[in-house]
Specification:
CATH architecture: 3-Layer(aba) Sandwich
Number of domains: 1
Shape: globular
Distance between the termini: 41 Å
Order of helices and strands: HHEHEHEEHHEHHEEHHE
Strand order of the largest sheet: 3-2-1-4-5-8-7-6
Family: Belongs to the methyltransferase superfamily.
Region (Disordered): 235-271
Radius of gyration: 18 Å
Oligomer: single chain
Keywords: Methyltransferase, Transferase
Largest sheet: 8 strands, mixed
Biased composition (Acidic residues): 239-260
InterPro entries: Lys/N-term_MeTrsfase_sf (IPR051419), SAM-dependent_MTases_sf (IPR029063)
Helix content: 25-40%
Number of helices: 10
């Protein structure tokens, strides 16, 4: 079976059209993430929802009192359908914008640096790493986000199924062999998750990072925190979970996590520990400027 290329705009145009632009949540819903987001965002923040698709996360924020929310997606028809659906939320913006585009003619190049206080990404980075360009699109996207929140007060929040051995390479621009040892944090969080029940909103450890990097280790960010959020419907850390959303499993199987580490091996034990944790959790990366 041919791999699905989630980085392809054509794929999303066909998918949205086939589903009549119906609401769909990748990974986590806005309500599931709220126990974390309420500690990261402020109603005065200018918030960019990157790769909004047909998610409700923008409208969810609006209903919680956030009025400065801009939702963008590379699929024009999708954005138009969502703008019509949520037209009653008159202060919320919708725009067709490819955040991984490059060149003087790319629309994103006209957006001023520091235009936003926070950027929310729910599986957009996951989609971009499937592009057959050795991670170029994903790294370009991260660099664009860093520019858009340059000098701001808020974070870049990435909700992902990719564990730290993969995602931190992109966010920190470093090969796997140079990543800091995070094994102890993984084991501690895994112990707490063995007793976790229900959805992410009931997971007490959601407001405690599984790992935190600061200073030189966190470049180009001031600080990067890694959170583990229980997958919806997970009953325990050790449970064998069959994801209700088969497309998410397909994305994980098809993903080609491109890196520039030259094939360097992961640190002993770290990759397997994160992979075990990832069977029950999604990861949230909070990158502070």
């Amino acid at each position: 079976m041919a791999a699905i290329r989630y980085a392809s705009p054509e794929y999303w145009q066909q998918r949205y059209k086939a589903t009549s632009y119906g609401a769909f949540e990748w990974l986590q819903s806005g309500s599931d993430l709220w126990p974390l987001l309420e500690n990261l965002l402020h109603p005065d923040h200018e918030i960019l929802v990157a790769g909004c698709g047909t998610s409700r996360i923008g409208p969810d924020l609006y209903e919680r009192g956030f009025r400065r929310v801009t939702n963008v997606d590379s699929c024009t028809a999708c954005v138009e359908s969502q703008a019509a659906r949520w037209a009653s939320m008159e202060h919320m913006d919708w725009s067709a914008l490819d955040l991984a585009a490059v060149g003087p003619d790319a629309a994103v190049s006209t957006v001023e640096s520091g235009s936003f206080d926070a950027v929310l990404d729910k599986a957009l980075l996951d989609s971009l790493v499937t592009a057959p360009d050795s991670g170029v699109s994903a790294r370009r996207y991260v660099a664009t986000v860093r520019r858009l929140i340059d000098g701001s007060a808020g974070p870049f929040v990435v909700v992902s199924h990719g564990d730290p051995t993969a995602r931190l390479q992109l966010l920190l621009r470093t090969p796997a062999a140079a990543l800091p040892q995070l094994q102890h944090a993984t084991e501690a969080l895994a112990a707490r998750l063995r007793h976790a029940r229900g959805r992410a909103s009931a997971l007490a450890s959601i407001v405690e990072p599984a790992a935190e990097l600061a200073g030189p280790l966190a470049q180009p960010w001031r600080r990067v925190r890694v959170f583990a959020v229980a997958k919806p419907a997970v009953t325990s850390y050790s449970a064998d979970e069959e994801d209700d959303q088969e497309d998410e499993d397909d994305e994980e199987d098809d993903e080609d996590d491109s890196s520039d580490d030259g094939g360097a091996p992961d640190r002993p034990g770290t990759a397997s520990a994160w992979a075990a944790l990832g069977s029950a959790c999604h990861f949230v990366y909070v990158c502070d400027v």
